[in-house]
From TrEMBL:
Assigned keywords, A-Z: 4Fe-4S, Amino-acid biosynthesis, Cysteine biosynthesis, Cytoplasm, Heme, Iron, Iron-sulfur, Metal-binding, NADP, Oxidoreductase
Keyword Oxidoreductase included in the entry's annotation: yes
Gene3D superfamilies documented for this protein: 3.40.50.360, 3.40.50.920, 3.40.50.970, 3.90.480.20, Sulfite Reductase Hemoprotein, domain 1 (3.30.413.10), Sulfite Reductase Hemoprotein,Domain 2 (3.90.480.10)
GO molecular function: 4 iron, 4 sulfur cluster binding; FMN binding; heme binding; metal ion binding; NADP binding; sulfite reductase (ferredoxin) activity; sulfite reductase (NADPH) activity
Subunit-level organization: Alpha(2)-beta(2). The alpha component is a flavoprotein, the beta component is a hemoprotein.
UniProt record similarity statement: Belongs to the nitrite and sulfite reductase 4Fe-4S domain family.
Subcellular location: Cytoplasm
Job of this protein: Catalyzes the reduction of sulfite to sulfide, one of several activities required for the biosynthesis of L-cysteine from sulfate.
Signal peptide: none
Protein name: Sulfite reductase [NADPH] subunit beta
Cofactors demanded by this protein: siroheme; [4Fe-4S] cluster
GO cellular component, one term: cytoplasm
Organism this protein belongs to: Venustampulla echinocandica
Amino acid sequence: MATTLKIRSPGEAVARIAYLSSDTIISVQPAQSIDSEFSSHLYRYAARNDKSIVAGTENGVPEIQTVRSNADPLLSVFTPIRNGKLVSVTTTSSILVASVPHLYRLAALPVVIHVSLHPAHYADYSSITAIRNTGFTFLQSETLQEAQDIALTAHALAIKSGKGVIHFFDALSSAEDNHIPFEDAEVVKEILNLGAVKAFQSSRIGGTSIYADDGRVATITEGVTQTTPMTGVEGASSLAVETIASELPSKASSVGSLKSERESSVESKATISSATTVENATVRPISSDDVYNFVSAIWAQLKQTVGREYTPFQYSGPSNAEDAVFIFGSDVGAFAKAIDAAKPGEIYANVGVVTVRLYRPWLGSKLIATIPKSIKRVAVLEQIRRKTTKWGPLLLDLLTTLKASPGGGVETIVGHQLGYITADTVGQALRGVFQNLKSEKPFQNLEVGNPHGPESSQVQDFSQPKVESAYMKILDQIFGNRLYLANAIGKENAGISPELASTPEFGFGSLLARKEHRQKFIREVQTAVASSNTAIPEELKSLLSNWAASVEDDKKANELADQIIAKLEASGSPLSKQLLSNQGLFRKESRWLVGSDAWAYDLGNSGVHHVIASGENINTLIIDSTPYSERSAADAARRKKDIGLYAMNYGNAYVASVAVYSSYTQVLQAMIEADQFDGPSVVVAYLPYFKETDSPLTVLQETKKAVDLGYWPLYRWNPQNEARSEPNFSLDSERIKNELKDFLARDNHLTLLMKSHPEFSSHLSEDYGSEVRALQKRNAKDAYAQLLEGLFGAPLTILFASDGGNAESLAKRLGNRGKARGLKTIVMAMEDYPIEDLPTEENIVILSSTAGQGEFPQNGRAFWDAIKDNTELDLASVNYSIFALGDSHYWPRKQDKHYYNKPAKDLDRIMSNLGAKRLADIGLGDDQDPDAYQTGYQTWEPLIWQALGVDKVEGLPEEPPPITNEDIKIESNFLRGTIEEGLKDTTTAAISASDQQLTKFHGTYMQDDRDLRDERKAQGLEPAYSFMIRCRLPGGVSTPKQWIQMDDISNSFGNETMKLTTRQTFQFHGVVKHNLKSAMKAINQALMTTIAACGDVNRNVMCSSLPTASKYHKEVYSWSKKISDHLLPATTAYHEIWLKDENDKKTQIAGNAVQDFEPLYGPTYLPRKFKITIAIPPHNDTDVYAHDIGLIAIKGRDGNLAGFNLLAGGGMGVTHNNKKTYPRTGSMLGYVAKEQVHIACEKVMLVQRDHGDRKNRKHARLKYTIDDMGVDVFRGKVEEIWGQKFDKAKPFKFQSNIDTFGWQKDETGLNHFTYFIENGRIEDTADFQMKTGLREIAKVHKGEFRLTGNQHLILSNVADADMPKMKQLMAKYKLDNYQFSGLRLSSSACVAFPTCGLAMAESERYLPELITKLEGVIEENGLRQESIVMRMTGCPNGCARPWLAEVAFVGKAFGAYNMYLGGGYHGQRLNKLYRSSIKEDEILEIMKPLLKRYSVERQEGEHFGDFVIRIGMIKPTTEGKTFHDDVAEEESDEE
Ligand SMILES: Cc1cc2nc3c(=O)[nH]c(=O)nc-3n(C[C@H](O)[C@H](O)[C@H](O)COP(=O)(O)O)c2cc1C
Ligand code: SF4
């Protein structure tokens, strides 16, 4: 019967075997839409529903997962394989090196990775040698037939050995092979061993994290009978085979045996069959010999069934040869052919060829057994293009095997680098090799063949993830219908493959063609206009001739284009139709070529180079998606070239480096400049991602790291600037990498830059890196050592790790006490300690708190990482003890109990394992104890003194009390401190600790970017400090002009965004120190201030925004201003520090004290912050119960404001697990007429000033003063100093505390629109130009803006006449949209990460995501329109007033929240803890059914917060003091 030979390529042969032998195939592809050499086949089989032999899926079709090659593909292997799935991977070699961390772990799992070596036209074997020590078994195939057989071997071997197998091949080697028959399914079944398959599939390997080493080792159980079922699993039919091969497959498989006259020496060995049962089975890890035995058994089986023979090494040639080549590279066949054809006298006649089939484990003894004893010299040819070591890896293998082992007769082994060889050059190459080999002193590392490989094809992996559309959108946004994309992805380039279409050459060509096309079109138009006999109306004619005269002027040409097109469309004449068919050419297009970073690998030859060299006016946008962290881990030798630098060096191109997630504005600027630049432009754009599904948050964080550390600087380079005497280079970020610095230094650009930005100089000239960090540690420790010199007494080193400061202050106190006892004490953070010194310590004590979920605090992690797996430290002469700070209830679930003080306990164990002796047993501090961690500490500390023999020291000095905020205030000279001096210090971006407290009174906080902390620490840099500035804006009313000024400030000095806060004001983030003063000045120039926006003073006074009653609003609002002004601190320090210029000298009184006087506050101000708000019933949109003073406006009979009901003692701040802290709703003191209200407020504040707790800041708010005193006593005290009495409170009614979105008309006929500003963040994104839009609106708006207490914004007082304009602008910027779910509209979140230093969990960046996840259920249950007040904060400080929400989430640790239920809908009732420390899955598990239940069971008009109480889910909280009572969660105390 005739055989139809079907398989044409090794990719196909391998795909078929993988398909038959896997449950899951990870198909690694350049992009989702671009096939690999395997994937098209895989999808074909799956589409036909072909069955796999092993797949345990319902339909027997294996699962195929497509993963993009730069999306960390091997990560996808872990989950399925741990669940008993047989997993294989089909990929090119390009992913291997980057996957090394995974490979190490995967080696102990039976995964098969089929690797086609790349680049396809000239394979580089270094990607294999680079990973040779990962523990995988490596098999190589060379011919098409081998690809099939070795693929099968790989699967069988993985199953049998339980270890990972990599099968690699160079597809080009077999390109000329004859097609081969399909595999025989029966053979595949037999060889795979279905019994073993079943056994694996029913196992679960466990381990959920790829980071935690599950310690898995592939093992073998010796002495147990292995059964090998010969028949397949019932019902499993396999891959459809159109024609079954019937001919006995050819015997020939390996290169050598192709030639009949060549002998083949194969060391054959009997199959190991373990048919005997041995009683005592033992389990041990798989050894190299085991692998060899398994693979031999498989090959023996193959030989039996298909007649082809394989061995770990293959020798072909005469059995008495003296010389041999060992080839590790492509096209062994060409060498073999040439040797076969050698004439007798040829130097390479009669030599042998050795190749390797089983590359790892490397079985040296098998190699010795394989090659004839007569061999004396071996030439090793390695096709390793990216050499990292001097000697090739294979040469080293051979040297150790053949030279070091006895019995080998080989005398000479010479390594050669194998380049690209063709049939024409192979003879010459061999001659060179053997001449060298046989010479007296052969050269090592001689190059053979062409090291650069073939000239042609530069095809690179090309992929475009979805996220990259951000840049496309921006291009589209800027240039609109003027944009011409040469190689738009997804655009059909008829008949051209995506690979080709994605090359720069193609795009370049198409752009040139487009240009010519337009020239032709212009001529056509000119001809038409000139010829008198064409019937063109005069008007059109003049338009056309105007146009023809200004074709290169984008503005004019485009304006005319619009008119012309409209006219042509109306006309309908044949000429019009003809012109219209090319209407795009009327516009002066902005021509762009868009590509990926793949273009960077071969810059000199790439099209990018052509574009730049051409000098054509073409813009290139290159998107780089390699995450910084991935790159920094990658092999330095493989680093991409820097396209930006390349282009700048070229001289004639405009170059910009941008990152949309770092500065949106800079992207716009660069693209516009690129377009305007007459010549080539290159914009390199950063958009790092690991997976296509990465959330914007990940992309944002990666971008920030890269930009911040100078890996991806933001800059613009315009070589035409010089002519205008402007600098060519502008730096838009703060740090640049060395290469760029060198470039700039060359032509004096750096000096210019430093001149224009003196503040950058410290960064620019700074080198960074981990060496710096090591040096810093050394210096810190040495400085200490010097201090201690000359002191006597035993040394005691005290290390601490602390996030919140408890462990740190304990450690410092311990240090002082040690010193007092005569010990030489050092106190340091764990991260600052050079760990190599540990063995030399005599006594070391470590205090560590617990963070995250049983983790070390940030400043303990590096130490822990260095010690945890360390086996080298010998601590035999070290005495140590550990004190742990934690909270036994932080993670209340029983199964989470082990997180209690976990890091300290772990460290205690490790230190002991390393031989250190305990001074005292570990001490355990627990927040739950009566005195919190102090309870445990009190018994631990004396044990240390005892152990060190200093417990009986007499006459210890009294300890100085710790410095408190009260001390700082007193010492500050009315809030001056050393702020001025600190601002001038350019050596650090920070200010001193006490000034950090004081600047709060001036409205600014120092923060650091928490996304960057770890990375910067690792680089030896101080944290990325910047300042938050908060304005004071009574009632939240701003003029349009002020809005624009605020917008400017955020762009010039901040991070290009603004936050509208829950207290109705503007907040800026990311203002660096050297911009702080300018920003403050600018705010004051806008007639706003920041004084007393934070700090222990009365802060911004809020007022309901009331869009429906403008007259009344105006009246009430004026009182918020009056109260605010009345309670303003009087210190002139604010003016002095921020506003005065050089000449504005304040008279200083003798002794350098400025005469200041605070009539209301006195020198120590208030014990704690103080907040006042006004609500106008029925709107409680300012949460009147949540502030120290809540004023409820009361209307008189005449419809005007009469006075206020005054509530006192509301407050939100709480500390987790500290029941002495609680949120509180204000208590009613009574009614006060409006004329007296500011005085009443003042008196309440004064009673608090004098009676508030100044010892304990956690107990200092007015709410505790009132509860401690009782409401009536408190009221009495206020009335006493006021000299008046409160009236009985007047009746009032609230309906809600949320905003009403959309248009509303007020009583005067003016219009108001409430925008939905999610969580108050004003920013531009590629999708939504909110910030720009609002700015445009502010430019023309004649009314005012009102910020609401829910972080939204009202466009107020729009006259009917102005409505069309406003509506049009709003539509243009999509600002008219408020069609969101009621849940989203009623939600709010605080800032939290990355700027808030107190955040324990994400808030603003996460709440929108959580809501999205709930909206499905909301829709399903018809709750879309229902308003449910949901709030989230990153910590219990409660900035978004979570305790009053119907449902709230308060951050507990990264990704974990406490959940509260039962708040009152209009902010009148506190909620209560429902569950603590839960994560997203649990939140959804609770919320989804609950929402459903609410939709079904709620009563008419019943709000969610009332509902959960009625159904008994939660008890109502009646007042602050009962907040912690009757919580729903049962905590178990059992261990
Ligand atoms: C975000 C966060 C997570 C915590 N996780 C744990 C934990 O997993 N186990 C534990 O015992 N204590 C935990 N705690 C409690 C702290 O370790 C404890 O409050 C300690 O006193 C804080 O000390 P520090 O101020 O030095 O950081 C956690 C505290 C916070 C704020
Ligand atoms: S609630 Fe906490 S995390 Fe959120 S902004 Fe306020 S202090 Fe920061």
